[in-house]
Specification:
Elements: H1 7-10, H2 16-29, E1 40-47, E2 50-56, E3 70-74, H3 75-81, H4 89-98, H5 112-117, E4 122-125, H6 129-135, H7 140-147, E5 151-154, H8 161-170, E6 181-184
Parallel strand pairs: 5-6
Antiparallel strand pairs: 1-2, 1-4, 2-3
Bound molecules: zinc ion (ZN).
Zinc ion (ZN) binds at residues 125, 127, 159, 187.
Length: 187
């Protein structure tokens, strides 16, 4: 796999969102990372003094996404949502729609809450062929654990609220300085 990042190219982008569009397009170019329509990306930024998560909107492809393909959702709302015991898909969609600072933007990815709770400015969510192949193989769980000891390894759960909730529980006492990433089994 080749890192497609180019310093000269990246320098042209002045805002968090524009740089995020650039790096999302780069991820989308590698079909060993994401296939058509797969994966999602985000960046945490500030708009008028408020923390906003710009997260891939549904219906957009990473390889061709543009700034208007990102849904701008208030971080505060997403961080409140993860504290709920239960949240139906329809209530999640409605609540996130209400928390968007631009109502004409697309609906955010179902993984918006997960992106919000990860305490880093930029979050990439890919479906790397190499990882999926190992994790889907016999003894995949053990092999993943031995190869990626510096990663948080999450048993398979449905994407969306339940996944965000599961990871939120797992990261309460996590030392992020020792964590290189998160691997979701069979995903
Ligand atoms: Zn995924």
């Amino acid at each position: 796999m080749k890192n497609l990042w180019c310093d000269d190219e990246a320098k042209k982008f002045k805002t968090d969102l524009d740089l995020r569009v650039y790096t999302s397009n780069l991820l989308g170019l590698s079909d060993e990372l994401v296939l058509h329509g797969g994966g999602n990306t985000s960046v945490k930024s500030e708009v008028d003094g408020e923390e906003i998560l710009f997260v891939k909107g549904s219906g957009w492809d990473l390889v061709s996404i543009k700034a208007e393909g990102f849904a701008p959702v208030k971080m505060a709302t997403l961080l409140e949502m993860v504290k709920l015991e239960k949240l139906s898909d329809s209530d999640m969609v409605a609540g996130q729609k209400k928390a968007m600072i631009d109502k004409s933007a697309p609906n955010p990815s179902v993984e918006a809450i997960l992106h919000a709770i990860i305490p880093f400015k930029v979050v990439d969510h890919t479906h790397a062929d190499a990882i999926v192949t190992i994790s889907n193989s016999k003894n995949g769980t053990e092999i993943i654990k031995s190869l990626f000891s510096n990663f948080l390894i999450v048993p398979y759960v449905m994407p969306g609220f339940i996944l965000a909730k599961t990871i939120n529980d797992m990261i309460q006492d996590l030392d992020w300085s020792k964590c290189e990433g998160i691997i979701l089994h069979n995903h």
